[in-house]
Every structure is written in structure tokens, then in C-alpha cells.
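Slide 14.
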Amino acid sequence: MEAERALEAGKAVVLNSVEFSYGELKILKGVSLEVDAGSAIAIMGRSGSGKTTLLKIIAGLLRPERGSVRVQGLDIYRDGSRHIWGRIAYIPQSIGLIEGASALYNVLIARAPEHLLNFIIGFWSRGDVRDAMEALRIVGLDGKARIRVDRLSGGERQRVAIARALFQRASIVLADEPVSNLDRDTAENVVRILAGLSRNGVTVISVLHDLDLALSYFSRVYVLSDGRLREIV
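Slide 15: predicted structure.
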């Protein structure tokens, strides 16, 4: 095992011959991928090609039928996905914000598993609030921290989700179509912030549908087609 980890030094995620099916439909057919720590990569493909499935497998939410998934040197399906809890932030297509709550509160709940009592009674330490405000500042929303998220624009809501990932102290961010249904300028702003996390050592893996944005902001771009992943840049 030590030899395996030594070989994977500097790799945040390593997939080896991953396969997955929904019933008789084979979605992933031996997908392999190595992602350097602190890099930003984009995955593209047609609707239904398996992009979301692939992200969920990396996040430990779906178990592959065959193959291995190593996150920061740990085989998450052999060693247990609990070992990566907190290391990965998964931003789904429906980002799951609490509509009646403020942007600040939606960021603070990212640490609810660590501070369950705080979550229940609605009390947060000064340190937590400071860190949450800093995360909102990074995405340009510190001035709207107290505003309810149902009053924010689509792009601002996506930035709240990114701030939540930062506040979680995740070293890997998985984003599933983070700019769908956004206008071009707003989408570019969100992608710029997301990909820019890699400058602070965060590994970013994002599903995108816009090739121009992917090529402009991500160091490597892949296409998932017919169950196989190939690099185009």
C-alpha cells in the first residue's frame, strides 16, 4: 500500500478502470483518470453520458461495479468513504440552498456535521462567522451575506455554493454543471472563481457544457462519450 501511495504522490484523485451500470445500461466502461492536486479539470459530454455518475463515484456517493477510486491516496471503497468526509465538497446541479435563510447561514451549515449542536440551536462561534464571511468575500458576496438566498440572482446563488465549499475547508471541489441556465457573462464569472480555487491548492473537477469556458479556465479538458473518457486538451 505504501508503494501505491508513493506512486500517487501529488495526485488528488486516481481512477482505475471504473465501470458502472444502471440495470442493463453500461454507463462507464473502464474509466481511468489521474488528477494532480491543486489542478482544475473540466469534464464534458452529452446529457446522459455519465458525467454526474462519475462525479458521484469520486465523491463516494456511488460504488462502482469494478475498478478502484483513490482520493488523496485512500481507496475510498476499500478503506471506507468516511475517511474522505470533509475533504470533498460536492456541488450538485440543484445546489440545495435553504431558500428562506441568508447567504451567510447557507455557508455556515457546511460545518454542521462538525458542530451539530450549533446547527440545531442556530449558534455559531465568532471564528466560524469570520471564516464564513471570508469565504463570501472571496466569491464577492460579503456585501450580501445577510440577504436571503431566494433574493439572489442565479450566479450569486452559485457563488454561495462555492463559498460553502471553501468554508468546509475541502481540498477537492466537485461541481456538476455549475453554470447551467446562467447568461454568458455570469457563467464566465462563476467559472473564473471556481477554477481559480486551484491557485490556493484546491483541486477542482467540474462538469461543463461550454467548451470555450472549459478551454479558457481549466488546465485539462476531457470528454466522456460511450462510457469512455478521453482528454482533448
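Speaker note: The radius of gyration is 18 Å.
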